[in-house]
TrEMBL record:
Organism: Paenibacillus catalpae
Protein name per UniProt: DUF2935 domain-containing protein
Pfam family, one: DUF2935
């Protein structure tokens, strides 16, 4: 039960901060006259800010039943922000917000992250966990797409005059598109593809690219914070995508350890998936 509490708090702390920041990014991309949407975004910001604060008041000794109820509350908030993001996506795609600065792919991307968070909370509360070999493929398909999107956002939000960095971002975008296709190939070859050597190689290959994208994001974040490059990337967005790459790396490492049969005591696979 302690593991359930630990895993729940870890997921909620990570993703509620992410959801809070999405609310800010969406707000910054709306037009001044979109006051209703700005208000809604502000509302989500404070909801997830409160959830984040509450998650830090709980600890490993909190009653699991209390955490179960908290997870339901967070689940509802995740569902609502997902609905909001899909509504905004519809407005942008149907040209109802001309001149706004939220890319449709970015809004869709943040809605996929909300959906992932929601599913994670359901799995935690139901105790219904995906088998390891399925989780390895599904989590990688999800996160490779996330990483490929990040590379595209960075490439489009850098100033076009930052030619070298824009080229690098495009290379990462191609690299992750290819990795995503490979992951989907592996997925369609299930269950035959789910052998230990193939899955292990899959994780190794993905890790190499995620490490280099993570380093690129870290450099970009530091350059943006120090105002050394030209872009319209908010410093918090640069840090946000860096943290998401770190999260993916932690998940890859955890899978690798489980495949090798090493089960670190503080990171139990079964309570994550
Ligand atoms: Fe995000
Ligand atoms: Fe993201």
């Amino acid at each position: 039960m302690n593991e359930f509490v630990t895993r729940s708090l870890d997921e909620v702390r990570f993703w509620s901060r992410i959801m809070k920041e999405h609310s800010l990014f969406l707000k910054l991309g709306f037009r001044c006259e979109d006051t209703q949407l700005i208000q809604e975004a502000n509302g989500f910001y404070s909801i997830f800010e409160q959830i984040e604060a509450k998650s830090h008041q709980y600890n490993v000794n909190t009653d699991p039943q209390k955490i179960r109820e908290f997870n339901v509350e967070v689940y509802n908030a995740a569902v609502h922000i997902w609905v909001f993001k899909r509504k905004v996506l519809g407005l942008i795609i149907n040209c109802k917000l001309p001149g706004g600065n939220n890319f449709p792919l970015l809004v869709d991307h943040t809605s996929r992250e909300a959906n992932y968070f929601r599913n994670r909370l359901t799995e935690l509360n139901n105790g219904q966990l995906e088998p390891l070999h399925d989780a390895i493929i599904d989590e990688n398909v999800f996160f490779l797409k996330i990483m490929a999107d990040h590379a595209k956002f960075i490439g489009h939000l850098l100033d076009p005059s930052e030619r070298k960095l824009v080229d690098q971002a495009r290379e990462f975008s191609n690299d992750f598109d290819n990795l995503l296709w490979q992951a989907q190939d592996l997925s369609s070859m299930r269950p035959q593809s789910q052998s230990q050597p193939l899955l292990s190689q899959f994780l190794d290959q993905n890790r190499v690219s995620v490490v280099s994208l993570r380093d690129f994001k870290k450099t970009a974040r530091d350059l943006i914070e120090a105002c050394r490059i030209k872009s319209i990337i908010h410093p918090l967005l640069a840090d946000h995508v860096y943290r998401e790459a770190e999260r993916f790396l932690e998940i890859i490492d955890m899978f690798e350890n489980h495949l090798k049969g090493k089960r670190p005591s503080d990171f139990d696979y079964n309570s994550l998936h």
